[in-house]
Amino acid sequence: METRDDTELAPSATLGRRERAKAEKRARILAAARALFEERGFERTSMSEVARAADVAEGTVFQYAATKVELLMMVVDALWGAHERATTTPSLSAFVAPGAATAGGETADRIAELISPLVTAMRRWSELATWVAREILFGADMPHRRRVLDHVDRLEEQIAARLQDGRADASGAIGAARDGATGTAGEEPGAAAATGARLIVAGVLAELNRSRQGRIDGEDVDVVLRRLIDLVVAGAGAAR
Amino acid sequence: METRDDTELAPSATLGRRERAKAEKRARILAAARALFEERGFERTSMSEVARAADVAEGTVFQYAATKVELLMMVVDALWGAHERATTTPSLSAFVAPGAATAGGETADRIAELISPLVTAMRRWSELATWVAREILFGADMPHRRRVLDHVDRLEEQIAARLQDGRADASGAIGAARDGATGTAGEEPGAAAATGARLIVAGVLAELNRSRQGRIDGEDVDVVLRRLIDLVVAGAGAAR
DNA sequence: CCTCAATATTGAGTGTACTCAGAATTGAGT
DNA sequence: ACTCAATTCTGAGTACACTCAATATTGAGG
């Protein structure tokens, strides 16, 4: 009998000891970080606390996330990924996904729908959200952030797609009417939608933080966000 | 003879010894910070270096700016203030300021004009600019930042004003045409302009940083910025 | 000129994000 | 089983932003 019967039960298709240990450690760190960030906030959580909670040396944490914000991005990536997998499930996508096919509702509504999970999440964890937003828009290029950016890019693509649909509806009259005025004629139509999508994301992140700081006069945040979306939809619709 | 003849030469209208010393110290710190940030960048400048360059104890620096970013904001406030004073000089304002009066040029051009100094500065000092943008949009509420935000608010007001002018031109036809489609009818007209202005600022900050990270495909940044402005102008013009 | 409260300055001390040289572990080759 | 190179882990060490108790400076009132 071989001492390596392990290898039989966990075949070569699965990971070796080392890889498995690594994955477990990664999972522990991820869970610890998630829990601590959630209950004590980003600033009040120290890397050594995370290490202790994950039962790992401090240096090890830095091997999985080179930076405290990177650790946060690792958590965000995991959560966002889980959310994506949960919502993009086949059964639902049949009803919702195809975009143009589901013509039901105003373009702005359909965009609001897209960003609504983001808005909800950011409101729930506003302290973390500030750090996340900061990092998304102005962070340095690092692997975990990159993965979060991929999520953001996908979101922006969906928004852009709906902006395009909206443009199709509103086209003709208005497009023609504003054409001369808009100056920059003859651009690829996708460009305006992409710009609009990025504007919406940046705007939403900024406005949410603004409201968090009480810098929104009387009105509700949703009203402001809605106005923002309406404006971009109108702008993208009118654009040539 | 009085020992206090000083008091005569520097009358009560001027500041006392203490205040003067304080102002001098402040000036030294400001100059040191400005120089060091400019030549070595934000991250690679340490507070102790600033203290040494200003010939002041480290703790003293923190009395004038509670935080390293606050120190940066102090510098930005000073520079922006100087710029404002230089450009808002009476002679020029007679030609440029009144807004609607100077109907020359497209609305988008007139807005691009407004943000052009900001864009130039951010390009020149892109590392610093990232930190500044970060702090403007997502920083914690602190005195120097507050003063910078005042500058930003003023800029946004100017942009909003020009957006309103533009709306006046394009009004009628389009406004009426899109009314039903835009959904949220009967809003105060200023709201859309204010939102648009904030969108432009946030968008410009984000896009500039995006370009800094090489995340802009082929095109020139100016093209992207221009498209952004066009989009908002169109959106604000069409908005009810 | 002296006193004293108010205020400003100082720099050694503290917490914490991050580094890195060595120790430990692994798996492939023999 | 043994060797060895590659990888992973570790935690004491470092740098630096920020604090704070002690000290120095000022100006007003006697």
UniProtKB/TrEMBL annotation, chains A, B:
This is HTH tetR-type domain-containing protein. PROSITE patterns: HTH_TETR_2. It holds the Pfam family TetR_N. InterPro entries: Homeodomain-like_sf, HTH-type_TetR-like_transc_reg, HTH_TetR. Keywords: DNA-binding, Transcription, Transcription regulation. Residues 23-83 form the HTH tetR-type domain. Residues 1-20 are annotated as: Disordered. The keyword Transcription regulation applies. Residues 46-65 bind DNA. It comes from Brevibacterium permense. The keyword Transcription applies.
